[in-house]
Design a protein that fits this description.
This protein is mostly helical. It has 4 helices and 2 strands; from the N terminus they run αββααα. The radius of gyration is 17 Å and the shape is elongated.
């Protein structure tokens, strides 16, 4: 992993690291400590834009799931797929909000 990521060190932790960027892959959450090399204002703007997009996506998925005609006519697999999209979007929103909170503390 260190070689692929071109990083000097890798530490395993179960606690969130303040002043770090976070991202999630499936159920694993990763923290990247940031230093003076990152434009925090630009990163906050990028995350806020991504958050707005994901929130819009979540709203469209939830509208589908609340539409009685869609739910009544869609195969169970399609409904399950939309429910997975909803869960993924909610997880992404949580991660982005945590990243924003952490960045705003630095």
């Amino acid at each position: 992993i260190k070689k692929l990521g071109n990083i000097n060190s890798l530490e395993y932790t179960e606690k969130a690291i303040d002043g770090s960027l976070t991202f999630r892959v499936k159920s694993n959450e990763y923290f990247i400590p940031i230093s003076g090399n990152i434009d925090i204002t630009a990163e906050i703007e990028k995350l806020e834009a991504e958050l707005k997009y994901i929130q819009g996506f979540l709203k469209s998925v939830q509208n589908k799931l609340q539409n009685e005609k869609f739910v009544a006519g869609a195969p169970p697999q399609v409904i399950a797929n939309e429910e997975n999209k909803e869960a993924d979007a909610l997880a992404k929103i949580t991660t982005i909000e945590q990243s924003l909170s952490s960045l705003k503390l630095t």
